[in-house]
Amino acid sequence: MKAIKPPSFRGGADLHNAFLGQGLVDELIFNVAPVLEGKGLNLLIDTEKYQYKEVELLNFKSLGSGVVQLHYAIGN
């Protein structure tokens, strides 16, 4: 019997906002790299439908080369 894995989505702001806006996401994982990129697109905030959500840090770990992974649960 194979274990069931939760889906993982990678994409831009439109994909993230579609799932977050419908309340279909309960956890987020960010990989933070030690670089500054200047201007860019905001991947999470839909400025027209912004909703504040509490988050809880579940775990963090170093991935090497200064990269840190942050794992959050999204509150209701």
What are the main properties of this structure?
single chain; 76 residues; mainly beta; three-stranded antiparallel sheet; 12% helix; 32% strand
Kindly describe this structure.
The chain has about 80 residues and is mainly beta. The chain is built from 1 helix and 3 strands, in the order αβββ. It has one helix spanning about 15-20, and strands at about 25-30, 55-65, 65-75. A hairpin with a 2-residue loop joins strand 2 (about 55-65) and strand 3 (about 65-75).
Question: Which helices and strands appear, and what pairs or packs with what?
Answer:
Elements: H1 13-21, E1 27-32, E2 55-64, E3 67-74
Antiparallel strand pairs: 1-3, 2-3
Radius of gyration over alpha carbons?
A: 14 Å
Terminal CA distance: 33 Å
Mean pLDDT: 81
Put simply, the count of helices is 1
Measured as a percent range, the helix fraction is: 10-25%
The class by helix and strand makeup works out as mainly beta
Largest sheet: 3 strands, antiparallel
Strand order of the largest sheet: 1-3-2
Per DSSP E runs of 2 or more residues, the count of β-strands stands at 3
Strand content bin: 25-35%
**Apparent shape:** globular
Instruction: Enumerate the spans where pLDDT stays under 50 for 5 or more consecutive residues.
Output: none
The string of secondary-structure elements, in order, is HEEE
